[in-house]
Amino acid sequence: MESNAQERLEVEWIRRAQQGDHEAFGLLVEQYQRRVFSTVFHLVHQQNEVEDLVQEIFIKTFRAIRSYNFRAPFGAWVARISVNHCYDYLRRKRSSRLNYYWQLSEDSRRMLERGLEPQQRESPPSIEEQAVLKDLVKKLLDRAPAEDRMVLVLKEIDNLSVEEISEVLNWSVSKVKVRLHRARKRMLADLKRCR
Amino acid sequence: MRCGRIQKLLEERGETSLSPVDRQHLEACPDCRLYARDWSMLTQGLKLISQEPIPEPSLGFSARLLRRLDEENAPGFLRPEFYENAGRRVIFATLVLVFTLLLAMALPASGPVRHKPNVDTYWPQPEVLTTRNAPVYVGSFPPVPAWVEVKSVSYHWR
Ligand SMILES: [Zn+2]
What we know:
The complex is a heterodimer of chains A (195) and B (158).
Chain A: H1 2-18, H2 22-44, H3 47-64, H4 74-95, H5 106-114, H6 118-122, H7 127-143, H8 146-157, H9 162-169, H10 173-194
Chain B: H1 2-13, H2 20-28, H3 30-50, H4 61-73, H5 80-106, E1 125-129, E2 149-153
Antiparallel strand pairs in B: 1-2
Helix pairs in contact in B: 1-3, 2-3
The structure holds zinc ion (ZN).
């Protein structure tokens, strides 16, 4: 009941925003900003650039809002704009650093060599291990092609279902599955290369 | 073939989804074991990243955003870029003016570029008037005959 009322309210805000009502758009921003911040932060990993990117995304959203036709959920539509914006940003950034270079820390290397054996996996990793692991996976994500990174972040970090990802990226479900598998394989191969 | 299928299952559903036969394969196959170990490491890392605190929008984020939208929709003279452009024009005009003034000061007070030349920079030129149909010499040699009238004239620019 309450979610229905919320949905109706949201539809009203969208319609008003489509007429150019900034105040109504502000309410939509309040509603979705956390989600957009999360997606941008996980895709870009640059804390100091997140807010600027989110602002650009919402400006784009407002400029395009007349073309929103209520077929997909508004959240998925905003997510699509966010992901596309980050994708362009990542591609620009990647091409501007052709001599991209990174090195694993000594701790990451040791962890990679040792791996997390099955019996160790039962007990949660220590705080230090967690930090090393996070750092390692972030570096792998940074190295991954923009498309791999997008699909992996949406699935494994933002925890979207394959169906939701297909809505956000405007891909078929089977394409999402294939790309996801390819991205995981590539990341694992990259992990092996680091050994 | 079997390795590929098992590795895909590991990715999509995790180790617990494997049938006893597949599990036996996993125990025996070094490739699949390594794959399972690496994949588990990756998923743990990804999960840890997903638990990191997300940066909060700074205070007044949406108000600033709306102000930017208002500015974009404002008539020309109210937009900030109007002042930016106008400012640029003022600076450009000032530079041109300063340059012109400097050029004016640097130029010599006289010359062909400006103003009429000073009279004394031109020496008076002798003007030769003949009264008869006879050869005329100008200068000191041969001597000017008495019937040649030499008149001093100074030229002025008009
Ligand atoms: Zn195998």
